[in-house]
């Protein structure tokens, strides 16, 4: 349950509300256990409705991504184990908790395809088959593109607010992209030469390119757990 922190403007929906809550820019459950206790977990003010909606979306996205990342990588090993426990009915504390975990598991299973059922299109860059397994031993899980876009947008809104104290209002357009490795390499030099790095390692590293004339405008490369990247641009609407 989130505690109210007073009145103000929600970073997400930009509404003025009587009771704001703190919303973590990068969800607490997404931080690996080996994250340094000295890391400041960024927080931003959000209305209860947005905080709750993002919380449900992030939980759902985490469960699916945990099935796609490397289960032995240091940054994701515990993430995978945590996700597996979340869908294990036997780990439930009581009947209600067991039922909730069971329903999560069933939802995951309904969205898994295997072998020849896996489409060759729409596979997220960096999250495809990386272990050289034959097709009949491969599995894939469907994830809504909207979930990636909303999660990336949340991080961008949070960084702009925390670093510059600005809200990205309706004058701006936020565009998400999942670039291929080739597209990633084409942009790498620009981010390396002109970007500033905001790191909460080993969970997240954000590289940001922003002009001095307008801190809300810019390009962002968001790397999660060292496993995959998201790209976002913020531009003034035409």
Q: Topology, please?
A:
Layout lengths: L3 E6 L6 E9 L18 E5 H19 L10 H10 L8 H16 L1 E3 L24 E3 L3 H20 L7 E6 L3 H14 L1 E5 L3 E6 L8 E7 L3 E9 L2
Antiparallel strand pairs: 1-2, 2-3, 4-5, 6-10, 7-8, 8-9, 9-10
Helix pairs in contact: 1-4
Walk me through the structure.
The chain is an alpha+beta fold and 238 residues long. The chain has a domain at 147-236. Helices cover 33% and strands 25% of the residues. It is built from five helices and ten strands. The strands form three sheets. The chain has a five-stranded antiparallel beta sheet, sandwiched between helices. Strands 1-2-3 form a three-stranded antiparallel beta sheet. A two-stranded antiparallel ribbon has the order 4-5. Strand 8 and strand 9 form a beta hairpin. Helix 1 (48-66) crosses helix 4. The longest helix is centred in the middle third of the chain and has 20 residues, at 145-164. The chain is globular, with a radius of gyration of 19 Å. The mean pLDDT is 91.
């Amino acid at each position: 349950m989130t505690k109210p922190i007073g009145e103000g403007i929600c970073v997400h929906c930009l509404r003025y509300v009587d009771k704001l809550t703190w919303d973590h820019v990068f969800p607490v459950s997404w931080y690996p256990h080996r994250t340094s206790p000295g890391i400041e977990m960024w927080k931003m003010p959000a209305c209860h409705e947005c905080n709750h909606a993002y919380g449900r979306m992030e939980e759902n996205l985490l469960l699916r991504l945990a099935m796609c990342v490397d289960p032995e990588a240091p940054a994701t090993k515990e993430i995978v184990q945590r996700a597996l426990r979340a869908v294990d009915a036997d780990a439930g504390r009581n009947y209600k908790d067991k039922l909730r975990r069971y329903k999560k598991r069933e939802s995951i299973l309904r969205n898994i395809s295997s072998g020849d059922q896996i489409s060759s299109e729409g596979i997220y860059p960096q999250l495809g088959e990386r272990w050289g397994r034959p097709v009949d031993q491969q599995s894939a899980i469907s994830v809504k593109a909207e979930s990636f876009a909303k999660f990336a947008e949340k991080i961008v809104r949070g960084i702009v607010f925390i670093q510059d104290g600005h809200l990205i209002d309706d004058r701006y357009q936020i565009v998400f992209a999942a670039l291929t490795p080739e597209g990633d390499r084409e942009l790498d030099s620009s981010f390396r030469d002109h970007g500033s790095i905001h790191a909460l390692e080993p969970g997240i590293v954000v590289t940001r390119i922003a002009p001095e004339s307008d801190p809300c405008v810019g390009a962002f490369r968001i790397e999660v757990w060292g496993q995959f990247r998201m790209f976002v641009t913020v531009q003034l609407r035409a």
